[in-house]
Amino acid sequence: MATLSAFSSTPWPNPNPNTSPTPDFDSFSDQSYPIESDADSNFSMPDHTIEHNEHDHDHDHDPNPNPNPNPNPIIQNPFSTPPDSPSPPSSPQPTLLHLSFNQDHGCFAAGTDHGFRIFNCDPFREIFRRDFMSSPSPSEDAAAAGADAGGGISSVEMLFRCNILALVGGGPHPQYPPTKVMIWDDHQSRCIGELSFRSYVRSVRLRRDRIVVVLEQKVYVYNFADLKLLHQIETIANPKGLCAISQQNSSLVLVCPGLQKGQVRVEHYASKRTKFIMAHDSRIACFALTPDGHLLATSSTKGTLVRIYNTVDGTLLQEVRRGADRAEIYSLAFSSTAQWLAVSSDKGTVHVFSLKVNSASAGNEKSRTASDSNLAVTQSSSSLSFIRGVLPKYFNSEWSVAQFRLTEGSHYIVAFGHQKNTVVILGMDGSFYRCQFDPVNGGEMLQLEYHNFLKPEEAF
């Protein structure tokens, strides 16, 4: 059982300033809303509280009563610092804990053992950073200061380019408990709320009207305006926090692992339908959703094949092959038109595949199966396809059109750039690549740009 209580205070900030404002919490005074839930989460901001009681999580964690334990973070904003102000004291290069793109792939966020940083992709530049770790005094070294001050952020989720972000603490010295989602308002440079759980938060997903929190075996969906719990979903063990949500205002589609190995669950909230897709024989390793929620790309722990499904009826539309050897897939990304699919893995090569089904037709027309003649072999298919049915399926596979080779074993994520036929690649070593591929001839991509965004000497 849960109740929401509110008192006179400032209204909850609007995550979508271009639309009508979110409700003022003043209007909720003296009201309570029962929620049938076994969750243990509470949202709090000045004079506002939501509490849930939970009985099924793995272990308890003493909640931190202060949602902002370091109320005076070091704030370094290149756009607000006067030109003649002294430079901040140098600090050791941070360790990356997290990388993620925002919803339109125009920005990316980096969580470090010091705090977090936000970057623009094109043109590449650092937008701002928030370093929570206190600068060491002359009598102590940086390691000792870091151990006392915390600062580690293991997850940063942006909401397009607005001032609201979701933070989760992590690393050796987390800034916040890893069992909490902290709602950060960068206009105020502080946390304005939190959601607390009794097990570790694996990931967070945001859209303008929802906050989705992923735990090891649960997914919670909250309304953004008042943090009311709307839905909770049980999943198979999900240590990576796999989850994807559509971003179009007209419909909400959520994808998460199902309750069986190799299964994905698709929630269509507009039509109140749930679709289960047996995508692979092995466990799901990665998936991606188009912004409209019509197409879903999945890969398994084998990492050799990527499959594209229609989320409405679960039909397999296309299957492409990354390679023959096992690989760990780190990221999948659709282009804005769903004409291309990018894949990164621990093999050190980023692949771009041509897709033969567009997202609009998948959502509005009868879907086509992978054996449809419209999915005929193109130049990206194996040259041995003429003996299909005689040799194994491998020889009739659809291969990538373009490739970009990186360091094998390193962790990279990929997205499509805003310029035509470009991809942006981010590495956990601090590397930023922008590359261009030839949509007609394919082959090796052309590197257009490289930066190391962790190096303090980089000029942004």
Structural summary, described in words:
The longest helix is centred in the N-terminal third of the chain and has 8 residues, at 142-149. The radius of gyration is 23 Å and the shape is globular. The chain is built from 2 helices and 33 strands. It has 460 residues and is mainly β. The strands form 8 sheets. A 5-stranded antiparallel sheet has the order 4-8-7-6-5, with no helix packed on it. Strands 25-26-27-28-32 form a 5-stranded mixed sheet, with no helix packed on it.
Task: Record the strand order, biggest sheet.
Answer: 4-8-7-6-5
Number of helices: 2
Sequence stretches where pLDDT stays below 50 over 5 or more residues? 1-88, 135-140, 142-147, 365-388
Structural class: mainly beta
Mean pLDDT: 76
What is the tally of beta strands?
33
Distance between the termini: 50 Å
Helix content: under 10%
Question: Which word captures the global form?
Answer: globular
Radius of gyration, Cα only, in angstroms? 23 Å
* Percent of residues in β-strands: 35-45%
Largest sheet: 5 strands, antiparallel
Write the layout of secondary structure elements.
Elements: E1 3-6, E2 42-45, E3 48-51, E4 74-76, E5 96-101, E6 107-112, E7 115-120, E8 125-131, H1 142-149, E9 153-158, E10 164-169, E11 180-185, E12 190-196, E13 203-207, E14 210-214, E15 218-223, E16 229-234, E17 244-245, E18 253-257, E19 263-268, E20 273-278, E21 284-289, E22 295-300, E23 305-310, E24 316-321, E25 329-334, E26 340-345, E27 349-354, H2 359-364, E28 402-405, E29 412-416, E30 422-427, E31 431-436, E32 443-444, E33 446-452
Parallel strand pairs: 28-32
Antiparallel strand pairs: 1-3, 2-3, 4-8, 5-6, 6-7, 7-8, 9-10, 10-11, 11-12, 13-14, 14-15, 15-16, 17-18, 18-19, 19-20, 21-22, 22-23, 23-24, 25-26, 26-27, 27-28, 29-30, 30-31, 31-33
